[in-house]
Amino acid sequence: MNIIALKIVLDTNILIAIIGKKSPFRWIFDCIIEGKIILCVSNEILFEYQEILTEKASAEVAENVVNFITISPFTEKYEIFFNFGLIADDADDNKFVDCAITSNAICLVSNDKHFQVLKTITFPQVTVLKLQEFEEKYKTALTENFQRDS
């Protein structure tokens, strides 16, 4: 069975949750490494990944992860030309929403409560899934008998 790789945007809290070798959600990062998932990013998102990973882990870990994301053939980088401003409670989160819209990502994965307002907005529509919801919806399809379409 051929499945087209899923295009997603990851909030920083999710990236942190999936990169650890012992993380129960490591399978998601492995799917990015293997090309089963296409990670959509913008410069602003990469800067935030770098900043938060430096705080939570170390500068070396942050540099390694961001360098991997930057050079991975399974990362798509987008220039954001329009800011929708859909999240008023934490405007800094809008960079992820704008990237999801621009990239036409299948979903934005975040456990941040500020993203839940997107479920009430009909246009532009952005599907937001919590990490557990993403796992329930996609793990089986992504980890069994997957062949990437080119």
Structural commentary:
With 150 residues, the chain is an alpha/beta fold. It has a single domain (2-148), classed as Rossmann fold (3-Layer(aba) Sandwich), CATH 3.40.50.1010. Helix content is 45%, strand content 15%. It is built from six helices and seven strands. It has helices spanning 12-19, 26-34, 43-56, 59-71, 94-103, 131-143; strands at 2-3, 6-10, 37-41, 75-77, 107-109, 128-129, 147-148. The strands form two sheets. It has a five-stranded parallel sheet, sandwiched between helices. A two-stranded parallel ribbon has the order 1-7. Helix 1 crosses helix 2 (26-34) and helix 3 runs antiparallel to helix 4. The longest helix has 14 residues, at 43-56. It is globular. The chain starts with a strand and ends with a strand. The mean pLDDT is 91.
Radius of gyration: 15 Å
Structural class: alpha/beta
Overall CATH architecture:
3-Layer(aba) Sandwich
| Mean pLDDT over all positions | 91
How would a textbook summarize the main sheet? 5 strands, parallel
CATH H-level superfamily: 5'-nuclease
- What would CATH call the class? Alpha Beta
Helix content: 40-55%
Strand content: 5-15%
Low-confidence regions: none
Indicate the multimeric state. Answer: single chain
Kindly state the number of beta strands: 7
Strand order of the largest sheet: 4-3-2-5-6
CATH topology: Rossmann fold
Q: Give the terminus-to-terminus CA distance.
A: 14 Å
Gross geometry: globular
Number of helices: 6
What is the chain-wise order of helices and strands?
EEHHEHHEHEEHE
**Number of domain modules:** 1
